[in-house]
């Protein structure tokens, strides 16, 4: 248990559905991240938030829409996804983006299947 | 751009023995951080060990230690007295030295799947 929780743990959705992934951290961190983990590929950073402000969008398609209402919560809103978006989506948090002591702590992930 | 390479997709070791996982990286920076993360079947990514590039001393965390060779851009992980619970995917990751503005990313390798044979 790393102090970062994600819900749901598993999600199956059709290409026309709209769903949201939720991440919550109980560590008092100020930076939060979304990663995508596909089979046989390295983890890909998608978005970074620091003190609720988005500081990185790694050329992610607009069908993925992040939201960070406060430093403890991070959402990933999904709409009109494609089958190739099926993957494990990992959330992480760290004390503060840019700090010397920054180490990222990961949640358990949401396994997404797009049909 | 930095890249991280793990050339061993799979490794196996007998329980109680020692295994070394390889990682190389490419960077033009002089200051950076390197990490090993473990991802067991539960999918929770867990930090195993961290190394600051400016430190010559290799990091150690209980049964886990690294061999950091800065000139060779090599960062291997040694697991001593392997246990069944060590079975997992192991990811090597690189991070630039912190900067005040802008993004700071972890760049991951492809991972090595470690199997522990009883």
Gist of the model:
The complex is a heterodimer of chains A (115) and B (118). By secondary structure, chain A is mostly beta strands. In chain A, 0% of the residues lie in helices and 56% in strands.
| Main sheet properties of chain A | 7 strands, mixed
Q: In this structure, how is the largest beta sheet of chain B organized?
A: 6 strands, mixed
Q: How many DSSP H or I helices of chain A?
A: 0
Rg over alpha carbons of chain A = 13 Å
Principal-axes shape call of chain B: globular
Query: If you average the pLDDT of chain B, what whole number results?
Result: 91
Residues in helix, % of chain B:
under 10%
Backbone CA Rg of chain B: 14 Å
Quaternary structure:
heterodimer
Task: Give the helix tally of chain B.
Answer: 0
Note the topology.
The complex is a heterodimer of chains A (115) and B (118).
Chain A: E1 4-7, E2 10-13, E3 18-25, E4 31-37, E5 44-50, E6 53-57, E7 64-70, E8 73-79, E9 87-94, E10 105-106, E11 110-114
Parallel strand pairs in A: 2-11
Antiparallel strand pairs in A: 1-3, 3-8, 4-5, 4-9, 5-6, 7-8, 9-10, 9-11
Chain B: E1 3-5, E2 10-14, E3 19-21, E4 24-26, E5 32-39, E6 46-52, E7 60-61, E8 64-69, E9 74-79, E10 88-96, E11 106-108, E12 112-117
Parallel strand pairs in B: 2-12
Antiparallel strand pairs in B: 1-4, 3-9, 5-6, 5-10, 7-8, 8-9, 10-11, 10-12
């Amino acid at each position: 248990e790393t102090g970062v929780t994600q819900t749901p743990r598993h999600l199956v959705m059709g290409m026309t559905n709209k769903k949201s992934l939720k991440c919550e951290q109980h560590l008092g961190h100020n930076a939060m991240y979304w990663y995508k983990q596909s089979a046989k590929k390295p983890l890909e950073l998608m978005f970074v938030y620091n003190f609720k402000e988005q500081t990185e969008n790694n050329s992610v398609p607009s069908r993925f829409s992040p939201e960070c209402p406060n430093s403890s919560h991070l959402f990933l809103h999904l709409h009109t996804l494609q089958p190739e978006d099926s993957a494990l989506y990992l959330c992480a948090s760290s004390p503060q983006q840019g700090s010397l002591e920054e180490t990222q702590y990961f949640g358990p992930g949401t396994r997404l299947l797009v049909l | 751009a930095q890249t991280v390479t793990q050339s061993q997709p799979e490794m196996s070791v007998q329980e109680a023995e020692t295994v070394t996982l390889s990682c190389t990286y490419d960077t033009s920076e002089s200051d950076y951080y390197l990490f090993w993360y473990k991802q067991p079947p539960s999918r929770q990514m867990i930090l195993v060990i961290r190394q600051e590039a400016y430190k010559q001393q290799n990091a150690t965390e209980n049964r886990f230690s690294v061999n950091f060779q800065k000139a060779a851009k090599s960062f291997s992980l040694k697991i001593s007295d392997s246990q069944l619970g060590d079975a997992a995917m192991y990811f090597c990751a690189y991070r630039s030295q912190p900067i005040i503005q802008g993004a700071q990313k972890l760049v991951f390798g492809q991972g090595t799947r470690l199997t522990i044979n009883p």
